[in-house]
TrEMBL record:
Residues 1-181 form the IclR-ED domain. InterPro entries: GAF-like_dom_sf (IPR029016), HTH_MetabolicPath_Reg (IPR050707), Tscrpt_reg_IclR_C (IPR014757). It comes from Paracoccus haematequi. One of its GO terms (biological process) is negative regulation of DNA-templated transcription. Gene3D superfamilies: 3.30.450.40. This is HTH-type transcriptional regulator KipR. One of its GO terms (molecular function) is DNA binding. Pfam families: IclR_C. It comes from the Bacteria. Signal peptide: none annotated.
Length: 185
């Protein structure tokens, strides 16, 4: 029970620090923004900010996604090898036609995410959505969450995606810094 209380308390602190950053990012990109954390072997949406526009991606706090598909791969990419091994099935269940269909492809994508510092997904979880995610780190350089921007695919061309990537990674660094992380530690 004590561990549960500590976990809940630190998640509340994370959400408290994240909320103004999520709201600012949402306003700047005018798309849905989510904060996701690992829960078991899934990605769990723990906070969100949604734009006021009529056509947007609706996010539910508490919604779970597999870690091996879509932008939740960003959460998985920065975990230890044993955890990654547990979360990436030998035969991944496809969620759409764009979901990676082999363990080898997923592991290669995780390596690319680690190298570039963010993840982009085009229809891997929901066919008509594009998402971008960037990692949030703590003082000990462990990943604690990811910030995601999710948008209808028809609205996101290359220049819009570049803009979203830049703002998402900046927001994740701001939250990481607020949590005590330093790039040069």
């Amino acid at each position: 029970m004590l561990v549960l209380g500590i976990t809940a308390s630190s998640q509340i602190d994370l959400i408290r620090f994240a909320t103004p950053i999520l709201e600012d990012l949402c306003q700047r990109v005018n798309e849905t923004v989510q904060l996701r954390a690992v829960d078991g072997t899934e990605a769990l949406c723990i906070a969100k900010a949604e734009p006021s526009r009529d056509l947007r991606v609706h996010a539910n706090v508490g919604r779970r996604r597999p870690l091996y598909a879509g932008s939740p791969k960003c959460l998985l990419a920065f975990q230890n090898a044993a955890f990654i091994d547990r979360c990436v099935p030998a035969r991944p269940v496809p969620l759409t036609d764009n979901t990676p269909r082999s363990r080898r492809l997923i592991l290669a994508e995780l390596e690319r995410i680690r190298e570039q510092g963010y993840c982009v997904s085009r229809g891997e979880v929901s066919e008509h959505q594009v998402s971008c995610a960037a990692p949030v780190f703590t003082i000990d350089h462990s990943i604690v969450a990811t910030i995601h921007v999710v948008a209808p695919a028809f609205r996101i061309g290359d220049s819009e995606l570049d803009h979203i990537i830049r703002l998402t990674t900046q927001s994740a660094r701001r939250l990481s810094t607020a949590l005590g992380w330093g790039e040069n530690q």
